[in-house]
Structure formats: C-alpha cells, structure tokens
Amino acid sequence: xxxxxxxxxxxxxxxxxxxxxxxxxxxxxxxxxxxxxxxxxxxxxxxxxxxxxxxxxxxxxxxxxxxxxxxxxxxxxxxxxxxxxxxxxxxxxxxxxxxxxxxxxxxxxxxxxxxxxxxxxxxxxxxxxxxxxxxxxxxxxxxxxxxxxxxxxxxxxxxxxxxxxxxxxxxxxxxxxxxxxxxxxxxxxxxxxxxxxxxxxxxxxxxxxxxxxxxxxxxxxxxxxxxxxxxxxxxxxxxxxxxxxxxxxxxxxxxxxxxxxxxxxxxxxxxxxxxxxxxxxxxxxxxxxxxxxxxxxxxxxxxxxxxxxxxxxxxxxxxxxxxxxxxxxxxxxxxxxxxxxxxxxxxxxxxxxxxxxxxxxxxxxxxxxxxxxxxxxxxxxxxxxxxxxxxxxxxxxxxxxxxxxxxxxxxxxxxxxxxxxxxxxxxxxxxxxxxxxxxxxxxxxxxxxxxxxxxxxxxxxxxxxxxxxxxxxxxxxxxxxxxxxxxxxxxxxxxxxxxxxxxxxxxxxxxxxxxxxxxxxxxxxxxxxxxxxxxxxxxxxxxxxxxxxxxxxxxxxxxxxxxxxxxxxxxxxxxxxxxxxxxxxxxxxxxxxxxxxxxxxxxxxxxxxxxxxxxxxxxxxxxxxxxxxxxxxxxxxxxxxxxxxxxxxxxxxxxxxxxxxxxxxxxxxxxxxxxxxxxxxxxxxxxxxxxxxxxxxxxxxxxxxxxxxxxxxxxxxxxxxxxxxxxxxxxxxxxxxxxxxxxxxxxxxxxxxxxxxxxxxxxxxxxxxxxxxxxxxxxxxxxxxxxxxxxxxxxxxxxxxxxxxxxxxxxxxxxxx
Length: 817
Known about the structure:
This protein is of the alpha/beta class.
C-alpha cells in the first residue's frame, strides 16, 4: 500500500518616501506625497504598544514564542547621474523627493550605460524610482526625435493589481512632463476599444507575462513600431518568477528578445526584487543576459517588531486522537478584529482564497458585537474576483476607507498600501522571501511597524516558531527555475516558430535542450523543417499550447445555479479539490455549496448556503519510476533523482467544523484519475538498516509515511516552494526499487526544480526533518509534526518514533557535505 501527500493543484511607488524615524536627530528630505492617506494624521502608537495591547488579558502573552526587533536605519543620499534629464529630476522633486538614495542612483547609472541591472533592496526602498528615472528620461528624449515614434518601455508585473497601481504612480510622477510620457495598462481587463490606442500611441506599456505570451508576441506585427523603439524592459518583483511559472516567463522573455532583434532593437532589462538570493544569477537565468547587481540598500527603515505566535492547544482531539491546536484562521481573525477596534490599519495575509474569505467573515461578525460601524471597514481580497470587484477594494484600501483586509498573495505584490501599521501572516507563506515581502507591507512610509506570524498546526510552522534563527539568521532562498525543462521549452519553441520561423541562429537563445527537441516536435507534426528553418504547421494558435502559470486546462467558471451569475473562476488543476460536488465555496463573505461540477463544460454550479463546516478533499496516489538520472549510496541505502509518473485520484472529502477543525464526516466522490509526469527525489533503506533502526514490518509503513509527511513539510526551508507545490508517496515495498522507498516529487509536469534542490540538500533537509519530529512534544504524532492536512490515507498509518529512528539510521550513512 502506498501512502501519499499531494500538491494542490503602488507597492513602493517612489521609495520609502524618505521619512526620518523619530529616534534620528539628523533631518532628511521630505519624501512622502502630502496627499497620500498615510501623510499627517494623529500620531500612531508604536508597534511595541500595539503588540502589548494584543497580548493583554487571558493567556495571550504565552502564545508569543519569540520577539524580534529590527532597529530603525538612517538613509544615505546620492545625486542623480547627470544624464538623467533635468525635467525628470524636477518632476521627482515635485513629488517630494529631493535626492535619490545611493542605490537608486547606482542602478540608474547602470541603466544609462546600457547594462541590464537588478535592484535587490528591501521592501519600500524605492526600487520603482531606480528604474523610472532612466526610463522616463529615455521617453523624454524619444519624444523629441524628429521622425518616428521615439523610445518606448515595457513594464511587466506578476499581477494585474500591481500593473494598474504602477500606472497610477507613473501618471502622477510624470504629470509635469506633459504628453512626453504616455503610460497605459494592457491586460485582459483592458477594453477592446482601448487596445488599439495603446498599440499606436502609448510609449510606456504596463502588462503581465501572461498578456505578453498570449496577446502581444503572437500579434507582434501590430506592435512592430513599439518593439522597434523598445529601450527598456522593467521586470518588477522578479523573485516571484520561480518554479514552473518562472521557467515559462524565462522563455517568454527569450521570445521577446528574439522579436526585438528582428525589429532592430536591443532593450536593457531593469529588474527589481525586495527579496532575492544571488540576485544577479537569478536575474541572468530569467533573462538569459548578464545582469549587474545593486543590493546595498541605502534607504531608511522604521522600527519593525516581529512576533512569532503559536495558537494554544484545545481540548479537542483530531485524527487518531492527536491533540489539536486552535486554527491559525481563527487566531488571525481574532487579531484582525482587535487591530481594527484599535484603529490600526492592517492586512492579514492568508495562504488560500477560502481562508481569506473566512477570516473576513469571522472578523466582521465579531466587530458587529463591538461596534457595527466597523463591520464595513474589513473585507477580503483574493484572486478569482471579477475586475470591478478588485478595483473597488484597491481604491478602498488606498483611501483608508478599509481598516483591515484579509488577503491572499494577490495583494502581496499588489497595490500601494503605504500607511499600514501591522501585518498578520496566517501560516508560514512557504518561503522566507514571501515572509519578508508580506511583513514589508507595513511601515512603508518610514514609521514603525508590527508583523505577526501565526503558526499553523504544521511541522514547518511549529519548527519555525521554536527555531527563530531559521527565519531571522538565514538569507532568503535561492530562486529555483529551469528554463530547459522540455515540458516548458517545447510549447515556447512552437510559439516562437509561429511568430517567426526558427533558424539555427535561434538555438543558442533558447538553450541547450532546443536542438534535441526540434526533431521531436517535427515528428509530432507540430513543426516542419523547410530549407533552413522550422515552421509552425497548425491552424490553431501556438501560444495556446501552454498556460505559463503551470495551471493547465480551461479555468472552471463558478456559476450561481439559481441566477446564472458568474461568481469567479478556479484554475483547472485545483477544480477536483476545490469545487467538487459538495464542496464549500466562499465568495466575498457569502458561502455557497457546490451542487455540480461539470468537467466537460468547465463549470461548477453553486447555490448559497450556510453550512457549519468547511470541506477538505482526499485523494490517492500511485507512482512509478521512469528513469533514474543520479543515484548516490547512503550506506546500504540509496538517494536518487529522476523522472517519475504519478497517478492521482480525488476519492472523497471531509467535512470539518468551522473554527475548531473537528472532523464531522467523510463523503465519497467519483472523479477521474489524473496522470502527471514529473521529477522526484527518493530514498531507499535495506533490511539491515531497518533492523538497526528497530523497525519491524508492523510499523514500517507508519514510519515511512510519517517521515514522508514531515519531509514534505520541511522542504520549503531549502527550496523556493511551499508544501502545495510538491507531493509525496511512501511504499513499504516499491515494485521499481524492490525496497522500502519514500518519494517527494514536483507537482508540475516536467518538474519545477524543487525535487532537484531537495536532492542536492538532502543531508541538511532530512536532518531538519528528523529534528522537527523528535522535538515535537506530542506522544504519537500530530499536525505539528507528522500529520498532513492533504493526506490521501487519512493520516493512517503513522509511527512517529519509528520515523525518528528510521531517519537517524539513514543519516548515519549520509555522505559528508
């Protein structure tokens, strides 16, 4: 029997607006816009005072396992390079910024020299101005060109919200420059009647990689004058381009560079990230170009108080009688309520759409008991909303009308939310990079800020709140992406051939895997070789062969059965687990039950309801080894990396009581299986190793299963993934290895680089896994160590002590680093 755990299917407009922290005696240039909602107003309580109020009463103070204090920091000014147009400098000064920070001036210098550059400085450090100053200067130069369109620039953001907010910021900054700068958003929400104007007249186009892939590059003849004049390509929040998504974006950028060369331009790439390890290396892999690095943050920073918060144990018992902690959802809703009552402007970041909706509903209910006027000042924000709903929420948050927001990462990289006092993070977001990105949303005008990480009942969260050095004394993770993944590269070669026939000169641009893939695409009758070039042979659009976010398939529309109203969408990969028949679906504070999931029509019919429970899908998995790429002896055991095929089927769902998480029952489902070819790391043990670890056949399955769960939970410490990006299977006797085996695999076709990272850090990864299990205070295993919320076998069997002994024996023979 196999046991499995499956994957689930302006932001700083001009800078920290250079405000002097109150502890400084040296005056700094005023650097905030007077009309911004964060400017002026009553003096705010310090983050320490806010935290003290949150922990007053009851046993709340005991829930804080660690407080980290990051002191304020003064800024270091510089002067703009003399090649920046005086009109641009004047416009910046009119925005309240007298002098740039040193890193802004340095980045601008690289851009003016024609060198691609990545600005990797802290949240709210003014990265936007670092690339806007040279970009606006180039556009101003271009507006004076005697013939032609003049210079153009392209801005890429990972979310529509970020692009829209940046457009507002650019219009505000560039207003004194008149018609020389013509910014416009071009994405799926842009009305058809506006799109032609953008193509013809805009010289600063803000979009996202999806629109570049599906809309702009396939229609490049209509964009020829824009591409011919393209001077700069800005890639904001570049650390988000990781895994499968990052690999796709890397190939989209190569297609862009190829078309620019066709039209005679060679744009400079300007990248920005608040959280990146080895930023020049990561940026180089993303763009395929050498990239200069600017990472010395010269901006000022207000005081940050960061608290690690562990919810208390309850009297409830979960699966197999394991002790259950109060949920991070309930705890976060309480904190958001209390912060709103205090008048503290806050965002609670939640990992799931459902969680964001649930937290806002609970907070609104509790606020109604205190002060009904506060109910409308808390809302939810997540992906899947319709465009007009997103825009309304962004305006309300920007204006200060909303005091509290429960948001998914759709807002992590979203609008300018300067003026926030506190951020509550409901569960570790999967990477240190995302943790600091979210924490940095508060205190963005230089004032002090509070960040609280609320731990989920999960091995990694529990480990982190009791090992704060893993968060505060470690650098952010390296960005993992693999542009040469054949599952990623193949459809982009087809898209490139449809844009312009592929020649031998293009092989180097798209990477070393290209040459061996082209004959395969020709054999599949997707490409045809004619004379010296490969041509796209089909009538359909080649760009439609792939979804660059790795979601795959047509999004499922969520429709209210009684009215036919479209509520939103769910990506195809998540449909089996999120909108199966009987699932609870939340949308803008309203609760629905899924009446029917029609996979052929990609529609989920829902009806409004108010069940006292949430739902969680359960699934089963089988795995087979296709090819072993690398195999390393670990004593008698083996550590391996290679290709696997995973077959998964959602078979049932649990109903859990709201707030407590108590299991109320399980219902069967009849959904088709799905197959995934991907990459995996796996390890085996021998009979002698089992004997040495005192693992008998009765507990072997439980020991392997517990080790698998915990290792999945701990991998995000070593790779830029979270546990929903990866899956696992453990088997007491696997038919391909003929030994007890634990697999951990990437949850994306062709792999995403996470399993490869696990293979290369296996000693440290599995040692941390062993420590996390061994240090947990529970007797027989709980959600904080070896139980998994996604387990397809109902967390049965599990043997906590056996897992510790098994990993101890395995690690004895691990090769030295």
